[in-house]
Design brief:
37% of the residues lie in helices and 30% in strands. By secondary structure, the chain is of the alpha/beta class. The chain folds into 2 domains: 241 residues, P-loop containing nucleotide triphosphate hydrolases (Rossmann fold, 3-Layer(aba) Sandwich), CATH 3.40.50.300; 91 residues, Alpha-Beta Plaits. The strands form 3 sheets. The chain has a 6-stranded mixed sheet with strand order 6-7-8-3-9-10, with helices on both faces. Strands 2-1-4-5 form a 4-stranded antiparallel sheet. The protein has a 4-stranded antiparallel sheet with strand order 12-13-11-14. Helix 6 links the parallel strand 7 and strand 8. Helix 3 crosses helix 4, helix 4 crosses helix 5 and helix 5 packs parallel to helix 6. The longest helix is centred in the middle third of the chain and has 18 residues. The radius of gyration is 24 Å and the shape is elongated. The protein binds adenosine-5'-triphosphate. GO terms for molecular function: ATP binding. It comes from Planococcus shenhongbingii. It holds the Pfam family NIL.
Length: 342
């Protein structure tokens, strides 16, 4: 369990005080995967470094498994950090050490018994699928393999919590998928709690239960992934969603269609597509719906469907048909100029 309560972090520089993290609270329950998403400079790295106190927060509390991190002595903190594994965008492997040594050296440093070390190396290399690379050096591995070694190294400490700092940002899409699958697997197998930071909405979509959207050091919106994906409120959330869904209609095309009706984005939750609801609407009201684009997003905990539609008809009748869609639980967004940009 990870809990941050009103955490802030300020840096003092010649130019003045920079508030990198501002009053952030979050709660990752045991066995859950939570993600913090934000653009460059939003404060994500500083925030995740506050969790293991690599950065000491200026204000607020950090709690891990009911231990108040912010109140521990230095030696207690070193002991508690053994419960936290961390993986990074740049992998942070020792270049002059073999894969086996990269995993075993940190274990020696944290005082794991000598006889236990080779067993753990064996076990976790097998879990990440790299048993045969035991004697290889990092330079002989692909990016994805390096990240697997880093994951094995983190898991070998047998921590309760894994922090992931942009772990897939340096990887190609296919390798990203395989690393995300591996994170899902270790979460399911070991019940390990994961907090990750990312600027890729796809990472949130695929593996997270809960998402925090960070902007200017603050959490501007958060919630279960399925809620945020189906009813985004903040413009930053909508902008990130735009990176994974097809919002490709041109302004001119939309403007032209708007002359004869409304252009809308409809969002449906669950497995059902929007077709039956649209068919029922067309039957009930004197309107003609026309699907312009359709998109299904699979999330860790569900499915969301988006339809961009043109609904032709008299204004009042279109209004009544939209009220009907709303009553069926459909989320409706107007395709306006602002929407077109996001
Ligand atoms: N050690 C530091 N000293 C001064 N300012 C810092 C320090 N670390 C971070 N900052 C500032 O804090 C703000 C947040 O930075 P941070 O690296 O946490 O953001 P980020 O969301 O992780 O961005 P990126 O994805 O680019 O790493 C930035 O304005 C950054 O310049």
């Amino acid at each position: 369990m990870i809990q941050l309560e009103n955490v802030s972090k300020e840096f003092k520089s010649k130019k003045g005080v920079i508030r990198a993290v501002s009053d952030v609270s979050l709660h990752v329950k045991k066995g859950e995967i939570h993600g913090v998403i934000g653009y460059s400079g939003a404060g994500k790295s500083t925030l995740i470094r506050c969790v293991n106190l690599l950065e000491a927060p200026t204000a607020g509390k950090v709690r891990l498994n009911d231990r108040e991190f912010t109140e521990l002595s230095k030696s207690e903190l070193l002991e508690e950090r053994k419960n936290i594994g961390m993986i990074f965008q740049g992998f942070n492997l020792l270049r002059t050490a073999t894969v086996e040594e990269n995993i075993s050296i940190p274990l020696k440093l944290i005082g794991v018994e000598a006889a236990e070390i080779p067993k753990r190396v064996e076990k976790y290399l097998e879990i990440v699928g790299l048993t045969e690379k035991k004697n290889a050096y990092p330079a002989q591995l692909s990016g994805g393999q390096k990240q697997r070694v880093a994951i094995a190294r983190a898991l070998a400490q047998e921590p309760d919590v894994l922090l992931s700092d942009e772990a897939t940002s340096a990887l190609d899409p296919e390798t990203t998928e395989s690393i995300l699958d591996l994170l899902l697997k270790i979460n399911a197998e070991f019940g390990i709690t994961i907090l990750l930071i990312t600027h890729e909405m796809h990472v949130i979509q695929k593996i997270c239960d809960h998402v925090y959207v960070m902007d200017g050091g603050e959490i501007v919106e958060d919630g279960p992934v399925i809620d945020l994906f189906s009813k985004p409120q903040h413009k930053t959330t909508r902008s990130f969603l735009n990176t994974i869904s097809q919002r490709k209609l041109s302004k001119e095309f939309v403007a032209n269609l708007k002359k004869s009706g409304s252009v809308l984005r409809l969002t449906f939750r669950g497995e059902a597509t929007g077709d039956p609801v649209l068919a029922a609407m067309a039957k009930e009201f004197d309107v003609k719906p026309n699907i312009l684009t359709a998109n299904i997003m699979e999330l860790k905990n569900g499915v969301i469907g988006n339809l961009d539609v043109h609904i032709a008809g008299a204004k009042e009748e279109v209004g009544r048909s939209l009220a009907f869609l709303k009553s069926k639980g459909v989320v409706i967004e107007e395709w306006d100029d602002q929407y077109g940009k996001i």
